[in-house]
Amino acid sequence: MASNLRAFGNSPVGPKTTHFWGPVANWGFVAAGLMDMNKPPEMISGNMTAVMCVYSVLFMRFAWMVQPRNYLLLSCHASNEAVQLRQLSRWAKGNGYLSDKKNEASSK
Asked: Where exactly are the transmembrane stretches of this chain (predicted)?
């Protein structure tokens, strides 16, 4: 156990590198998005949420392409992408962008 912990500590993606601490810090984006799920859709910024979606997609690609591959960063941004897409859909529904076709037909 101690040798595995020592090997991880000294690995190229271990806690002595930015390959570890960058993703750990980025989990804050995921936590903030999850906390915002309880807020009303009117409080969601569509522009900022869209930017966060693009940001997460770009950094998922970066995490996959960088050597050594950073699976912690990839999982962090994949989680953030899921949270932000959910927030974006809540914002779009709240602003009437994703209304049902039958609702539009009945209002005419």
From this structure: 44-64
CB 26 within 8 A of CB 74: no
Query: CA-CA distances (angstroms) from residue 97 to 31, 46, 92, 94, 106?
Result: 26, 11, 5, 8, 17
What are the pLDDT digits (tens) for 72-102? 999 999 999 999 999 999 999 999 988 766 5
Q: Which two tokens stand for residue 99?
A: 């209304």
| 3-class SS letters over the chain | CHHHHHHHHCCCCCCCCHHHHHHHHHHHHHHHHHHHHHCCHHHCCHHHHHHHHHHHHHHHHHHHHCCCCCHHHHHHHHHHHHHHHHHHHHHHHHCCCCCCHHHHHHHC
